[in-house]
Structures are given as structure tokens and as C-alpha cells.
Design a protein that fits this description.
alpha/beta; eight-stranded mixed beta sheet; 38% helix
Length: 501
């Protein structure tokens, strides 16, 4: 076979023309020391803060400290595989986690990997874990309620979409229960829920998962779990992973509720990392940037303006106090970042008042702007009534002779406390909440014995749901979100009371 020299020449010219000189450089360092989920690496002169590093045995790390002669990195998986002298490569990119619709219904670790035994999550999109919060121009004021289904919250401490509302209280006072009930109440709504468990026992996270599954809430929920047995770097990373997944939905014009349970353990894990990285300790041995740790997380909650799709992230962080001390360091930090707090009191919890919310110390800085008119109209004097009742209750312990006006106030206070009690996982639509509180403020409960109030409420709701005009009234409330004709509502309640035994 004869080869044409011209053909070879043209092929070589084509190859030369297409040749592009590309140089790939990799920065390689070596491990100086490793231990407790921390590695000190020498030789990475151009590493970025937050950059992803690759260690041997498919172990990944993230740059935290940029020192003069080395970098400090946190290790994100099995640190026991790494030893002194191991090679470390930079990746040139910041840590990213998978995001997208495929995450819904799954339980994941802080790296976005499934840990529920339901197989791999097939999502192609990723987002950087550290993102700058949206600016003021890109936001709009909070004006849409996020219903919790809990009477005392929706009436006294309303939460709006895009708000940051703190739940604070001692351990075992029902903080997680309120958060879980709020998730359950979003069923048949348009809110995607993310529950971030930080430093919880694996059995506790399993209980939350099973509760959400039982009430059909896992179909619109994601659980990000960094359990107590996980290394500190994963506990530190968990809430940022949660909010990164939430942002993907927010920018698609959707509404997200994210629970951080709890940020006390998050701060403790960050303190552990910081001390191991030899950062200078400050108050209570926390590093100087512990406020920034939580502010850059919670500032990412927002209600976007209509131009950006109007999506929102509502953040509910949880803080655990010691002996009700809300003036502690981490507590005051988070209170100053959030738009209000729900304070749960041990004394109320143990006296049988559930949820154990202290109406005097609980506040929402968004207030009536995030309330349906129906609830707003009937709950105006509720906070003052409760506060004056608590004051009178304490005062009357020392005296027995009470005038009629004081007795009437105490009776009304007792009934207010009783009607605001609510069972676990027993959420209530806003229209039934409004009817219960209307019956209270209009004085219909004054003629009912305190011990019969819970039964009265339950039977009143059943009566209105079955009654023809009651059904029509409920439908009108659902459509208008406002209180219906008061005379009509009074007739219904009076008709029920006459038969109530």
C-alpha cells in the first residue's frame, strides 16, 4: 500500500493546529500532625479558607486555619486512616454539598450522603456550603404567616415566613416537640421542612424520623443528622449543609422551614475545633468569632422579594439553657441575632402546662404582620390577661380575702391557661384556634368549670364541623382568613352551650 506524503503532511498540520498547551498544576503538602479530627498540613502555600482538601484513603478535609508555616484542616470522615507524612492535595474549590428535589424524604449526613438505608441520592446539583446572605434590597418584609398549629404560639408569638424565631429553655421542656409539631402542621401546605439534628443521640433522631413518618410529614421533609457519636467537624458543618439545601428551594420560589436542634451543641463543637486548632480562647473558652458562627448561619434565612421569586427560609434555632439562664453567653448571642424567642419554663412544664411557654418572656418582633386577621382580632388582650393573671396568682398566695373583681380576673386567667393547653402532636387549624379563643374572650368559658374546658373545646369543634351553618362558617374563614359575622358565631356557641353537660 502506497502512502501519500501529502496526506501525512496534512494530518500532521491538523494535529499541530489543534494542539493546545495546557498545564495542570496541583499543590501537594504533607501532614505534620493529626488527631481528634484535626490535621496540620505543611506546604499548601496557596490554600484558601474553606477549601476542600484530598487526603489518602478518600478522606476529605476543609481548610480552617491559615497559619504562616502550615494550614489547619478539619477532617470530614474517618480521621484514623490519616497518619503523619501523608500527602495532601488541594482541589481549588470550596466545600460543596448536593442539593435538589431528590433530597426530600431522606435522612442525610452533613456531607449530603444518605444514611437512611434507602440507597444513593441521585442529584446532579451542588452548592457551596458557605454563602453570603442576601442583602436588604433582595428581601421584602415578612408578611405571610407560618402556622405552627399550636394555639398559644399562633396567638401570642406568631411566626412569619422568612423570620428567625428562637426556641429557648432547659432540657426536657418540650423544645423539640414544638419544632416537630410545627413540621407536622405543614402537611397539605406548600412548605418544605428541614430538621437539622446537631449532637443528638441517634435514638432521638430515629424517634423524630418515625414521628414525622407516622404523620405523613417525611414526604416534604429532610433530616440532616450529625449525631453525638460523630466527630466535631460534622457537628460544625451540619447546620450549614441544612441551610445550603434550603437555599436551593428558596431561590426556586419555594418556602422552607429549617429547624436547628440545637445551636448550643453546635457552639460547643466549634469551641472544641477552635481549641484544637490553637485559636485563642475568649469568654467561657469560646473563640472570638462564635457570634459570627451563628450570625452568618441565621442571616441566610430570608423572605426574597417578588423579583427573585418570593421564596423564603424560616429558621427556628433551638438553644438549651441551664436552670433557665437566658442571660448566658450563647443564649444572648442567638437572641440578638433572631427576631424573637419562645421561652419554655421548667416550672410551667412540671405543673402540667403544655406547651410550657412563658408569655412574659416570649416575643415575636414581626408580630401581627405575620398573623391571619381571624387570630389577630381575637388574641389582642390575651398576653395582658395572662401576664396580669400570673402577677395576681403570685400575689394572692399570701392572702385569702379577695374582692369580686380580683376573683373574676383569676377565674378568667385559669380558663385562659386551660384553653391554651394542647396535647403532643395535636395541631389545630387556625379557624378552630380562632373559635376557641373567641369563646374565651367573649366570656363563654366563664360559665364552664375549669376541669371541663378541654372537653368543652373538643366537643364545640366537633359540633361546628358537623353543623350545616358551622361548616359554611369554617369554609368562609378558610377562604377569607378573617373572623366571620360575630352574631352568627355567637349563635353557634350559645346553641352548643345550652346542650353541653
Amino acid at each position: 500500500m502506497r502512502i501519500d506524503p501529502l496526506e501525512i503532511s496534512s494530518l500532521l498540520k491538523e494535529q499541530i493546529r489543534k494542539y493546545a498547551k495546557t498545564t495542570k498544576t496541583e499543590e501537594v503538602g504533607s501532614v505534620i500532625s493529626v488527631g481528634d479530627g484535626i490535621a496540620l498540613v505543611y506546604g499548601l502555600d496557596h490554600a484558601m479558607s474553606g477549601e476542600l482538601l484530598v487526603f489518602p484513603h478518600e478522606v476529605f478535609g476543609m481548610v480552617q486555619n491559615l497559619e504562616k508555616d502550615h494550614v489547619g484542616a478539619i477532617l470530614l470522615n474517618d480521621s484514623t486512616l490519616i497518619k503523619e507524612g501523608d500527602q495532601v492535595k488541594t482541589t481549588g474549590k470550596l466545600l460543596e454539598v448536593p442539593v435538589g428535589e431528590e433530597m426530600i424524604g431522606r435522612v442525610i449526613n452533613p456531607l449530603g450522603q444518605a444514611i437512611d438505608g434507602l440507597g444513593k441520592i441521585n442529584t446532579k446539583k451542588t452548592r457551596p456550603v458557605e454563602q453570603k446572605a442576601m442583602g436588604v434590597i433582595d428581601r421584602q418584609s415578612v408578611n405571610q404567616p407560618l402556622q405552627t398549629g399550636i394555639k398559644v404560639l399562633d396567638a401570642l408569638v406568631p411566626i412569619g415566613r422568612g423570620q428567625r424565631e428562637l426556641i429557648i429553655g432547659d432540657r426536657q421542656t418540650g423544645k423539640t416537640s414544638i419544632a416537630v409539631d410545627t413540621i407536622i402542621n405543614q402537611k397539605d401546605g406548600d412548605v418544605i421542612c428541614i430538621y437539622v439534628a446537631i449532637g443528638q443521640k441517634a435514638s432521638t433522631v430515629l424517634n423524630v424520623y418515625q414521628t414525622l413518618k407516622k404523620f405523613g410529614a417525611m414526604s416534604f421533609s429532610i433530616i440532616v443528622s450529625a449525631s453525638a457519636s460523630d466527630p466535631a467537624p460534622l457537628l460544625y458543618l451540619a447546620p450549614y449543609t441544612g441551610v445550603t439545601i434550603a437555599e436551593e428551594f428558596m431561590f426556586a420560589g419555594k418556602h422552607v422551614l429549617i429547624i436547628y436542634d440545637d445551636l448550643t451543641k453546635h457552639a460547643i463543637s466549634y469551641r472544641e475545633l477552635s481549641l484544637l486548632l490553637r485559636r485563642p480562647p475568649g469568654r467561657e473558652a469560646f473563640p472570638g468569632d462564635v457570634f459570627y458562627l451563628h450570625s452568618r448561619l441565621l442571616e441566610r434565612a430570608a423572605k426574597l422579594n417578588d423579583k427573585l421569586g418570593g421564596g423564603s427560609i424560616t429558621a427556628i434555632p433551638i438553644i438549651e439553657t441551664q436552670e433557665g439562664d437566658i442571660a448566658a453567653y450563647i443564649s444572648t448571642n442567638v437572641i440578638s441575632i433572631t427576631d424573637g424567642q419562645i421561652f419554655l419554663q421548667s416550672k410551667l412544664f412540671y405543673s402540667g402546662i403544655r406547651p410550657a411557654i412563658n408569655a412574659g418572656l416570649s416575643v415575636s418582633r414581626v408580630g401581627g404582620a405575620a398573623q391571619y386577621p381571624a387570630i389577630k382580632n381575637v388574641s389582642g388582650t390575651l398576653r395582658l390577661d395572662l401576664a396580669s393573671y400570673r402577677e395576681l396568682e403570685a400575689f394572692t398566695q399570701f392572702g385569702s380575702d379577695l374582692d369580686d373583681a380580683t376573683k373574676a380576673k383569676l377565674d378568667r386567667g385559669e380558663r385562659t391557661v386551660e384553653i391554651l393547653k394542647q396535647g403532643l402532636h395535636n395541631t389545630m387549624p387556625f379557624e378552630l384556634q380562632a373559635i376557641s379563643i373567641f369563646a374565651l374572650v367573649e366570656g363563654y368559658l366563664d360559665q364552664i368549670k375549669t376541669e371541663d374546658i378541654r372537653r368543652f373545646e373538643k366537643e364545640l369543634h366537633q359540633f361546628i364541623e358537623k353543623d350545616k351553618s358551622g361548616k359554611k362558617l369554617l369554609k368562609e374563614m378558610q377562604e377569607t382568613k378573617a373572623l366571620p359575622d360575630k352574631a352568627q358565631l355567637k349563635d353557634l356557641i350559645e346553641g352548643f352551650i345550652s346542650d353541653f353537660v
